[in-house]
Amino acid sequence: MANNYAKVVVKGSPISKSNFKLFNLNGRAILPYNSGKYHDRYALYEEEIAYAARSQNPNLTFTESLIAVLKVFYKSSKRHPDTNNITKSIFDGIEKSGLIINDAQVRRLIIEEFYDEINPRFELELFAESEFYMDYDILKRDKSETPIEYSSPPNRKNKNSYSNNAKKSSNLSIEGTNVCEICGKSLNKTNSVSANKGKILICRDCLKKLF
Questions:
Q1: Range ranked top by mean pLDDT from 132-146, 149-163, 196-210
Q2: For 80-97, how does the pLDDT look when each residue is reduced to its tens digit (9 = 90+)?
Q3: Phi-psi bin for 198: left (phi > 0), alpha (psi -120 to 50), beta?
Q4: How far is residue 38's CA from residue 42's CA, in Å, rounded to a whole number?
Q5: Which of the listed residues 25, 45, 173, 199 has the most CB atoms within 10 Å of its CB?
Q6: Cβ atoms within 10 A of the Cβ of 115, count?
């Protein structure tokens, strides 16, 4: 096998690391592996990437700078993670596989977004920069296509309103009848920790056990 090129294909809808962060007692972002809950999905996805990268490219480790071409295929064009955030998830798994030493090796990166309802996946190609260089063109279409339009999410249309509502929601959730996402224990202001920007709550005892 050539030692200046590698390709990794991982099937399934790509996920973003930012959606699975919890925060420890010091406010540091952490990723749980054994909570038995939704957050474990990212850790498992990272392991899946690492396994695929190593099994598809045995006995290969890049130590030099790299060019990367990433093609991400989502199931739907309407609901999917931000493609820019996907790169961190993918390269964390690639680094863990040992295929690269550090994701800082990737000095040039092209990301392309596609849609495949039947076979969502990502395809990553790595090129050793000592043997390859990047050359690309952006060309004018002969005939315009229907544009893919985007609009601001509802919670970003009025930032001030969102912040006030989020604060009220957070206060109500802690003072109300919320329970820990992991053990189910009732929570209050003194024994709870918020995660994912206040979207979920867990008790401090479970946080200590996880980490």
A1: 132-146
A2: 767 877 888 899 999 999
A3: left
A4: 9
A5: 45
A6: 13
**Cα separation, 83 vs 75, whole angstroms:** 13
169: pLDDT confidence band, cut at 50, 70 and 90?
A: very low
Write out the two tokens for 189. Answer: 């202001």
> What pTM was computed for the model?
0.65
- The confidence band for 211, taking pLDDT boundaries of 50, 70 and 90, is low
Q: Which of 84, 94, 128 is nearest to 10 (CA)?
A: 94
Percent of the residues in the chain that have a pLDDT greater than 90, as a whole number = 43
Residue keyed to tokens 């406010």: 27
